[in-house]
UniProtKB/TrEMBL annotation:
ATP binds at residues 32-39. The chain holds residues 1 to 182 of 1159 of the full protein. Contains large globular domains required for ATP hydrolysis at each terminus and a third globular domain forming a flexible hinge near the middle of the molecule. These domains are separated by coiled-coil structures. Belongs to the SMC family. Required for chromosome condensation and partitioning. It comes from Inquilinus ginsengisoli. This is Chromosome partition protein Smc. Homodimer. It comes from the Bacteria. It is found in: Cytoplasm.
Length: 182
């Protein structure tokens, strides 16, 4: 499965409804400092179930809701929808669906809820979609700005481990190791 589309509304700096198509292959997001590039990546992580406000660069989860600027009032709602292309039937438990829409919505003071293809679900159901260790909000494939410097100064063996986790092949190595022991 892969990301096909990202829609945001009231999320961080994306106060107006924003719809981003993600084509297969490499996608670059470019723009001046502070224009919202990291916020887009955070929107992906948030909709996949990120539950730490600190990892969303906030004090509390309500901080993901548009907080207002000079001339624009704060909002009370934020919503992010990810569309997953599931043509390869890679999503666990979703053998019948060509595409999967995950929506997370938060209302100021009342917390957030999740929907999959329009149906209210538990946070756990969203986590189950991303249960392999290469995807989801804690995926090592998502390298935050702060971690880039740490990766550069890491020892080669550590760096290799991060890359293998990101590529989702760590499990293959341990299974091969098991096979060699037999
Ligand atoms: P850089 O190139 O410096 O990494 P960036 O494009 O990654 O910048 P972001 O960090 O995504 O930029 O966006 C930062 C902007 O988002 C800031 O202007 C900040 O005020 C704004 N922002 C973050 N949270 C909110 C919020 N809740 N409400 C309104 N604006 C917000
Ligand atoms: Mg950034």
């Amino acid at each position: 499965m892969h990301f096909a589309r990202l829609r945001l509304s009231g999320f961080k700096s994306f106060v107006d409804p924003t719809d981003v198509t993600i084509e297969p292959g490499l996608t670059g997001v470019v723009g001046p400092n502070g224009c919202g590039k990291s916020n887009l990546v955070e929107a992906l992580r948030w909709a996949m179930g990120e539950n730490s406000a600190r990892r969303m660069r906030g004090q509390e989860m309500d901080d993901v809701i548009f907080g207002g600027t000079t001339g624009r009032a704060a909002r009370n709602l934020a919503e992010v929808t990810i569309t997953l292309d599931n043509a390869d039937r890679g999503a666990p438990g979703w053998d019948h669906a060509d595409s999967i829409e995950i929506t997370r919505r938060i209302e100021r003071g009342t917390g957030s809820d999740y929907r999959i293809n329009g149906k209210l679900v538990r946070a756990r159901d969203v986590q189950l979609l991303f249960q392999d260790n290469a995807s989801g909000p804690a995926s090592p494939a998502l390298v935050s700005q702060g971690r880039i410097a740490a990766m550069i100064s890491a020892r080669p063996a550590e760096r290799r481990q991060v890359l293998e986790e990101a590529a989702g092949i760590t499990g293959l190595h341990s299974r091969r190791h098991e096979a060699e022991l037999r």
